[in-house]
Write a structure and sequence with these properties.
Ribosomal Protein L22, Chain A, 3-stranded antiparallel sheet, 3 strands
């Protein structure tokens, strides 16, 4: 379940602040945090997350089990502009962009693992009792 956003017109450094905040969290918890976040990158990341959730639904996944496995923010193109300065010179202004890649994954139920470990422990105790009886 992937989604990506290219050429988002904000510097990667600022977008990474929001990305690290929601990375590793469940989808519902991440949406709740992005709703009340006072950063400009919150809304585009929320829209990207909802797009990835829609992609997951198309594949038949359950939304409750999804979490953000990876949210990578890469450097996009840099538009170079000039600002007039004193004595006929100019200063360069870099207008940076970001590429965002979002990857959702499903949580694996640990109920099966618990049943297996209990079964293994039970067989070990049975074998230990047989050895003691001999």
């Amino acid at each position: 379940m992937k989604a990506f956003l290219k050429n988002y017109r904000q510097s990667p450094r600022k977008v990474r602040l929001v990305a690290t905040l929601v990375k590793g969290k469940s989808v519902s918890q991440a949406i709740a945090e992005l709703d009340f976040l006072a950063k400009r990158a919150g809304l585009p990341i929320k829209k990207l997350l909802l797009s990835a959730v829609a992609n997951a639904k198309q594949q038949g996944k359950e939304v409750e089990n999804l979490f953000i496995k990876e949210l990578r923010v890469d450097k996009g193109i840099v538009m170079k502009r000039m600002m007039p300065a004193a004595m006929g010179s100019g200063h360069r202004i870099n207008k940076r962009t970001s590429h965002l890649n979002l990857l959702l994954a499903e949580k694996v139920a640990k109920v099966l693992d618990v049943k297996k470990t209990k079964a293994v422990k039970a067989t070990k105790t049975v074998k230990a009792k047989k050895v003691i009886k001999k």
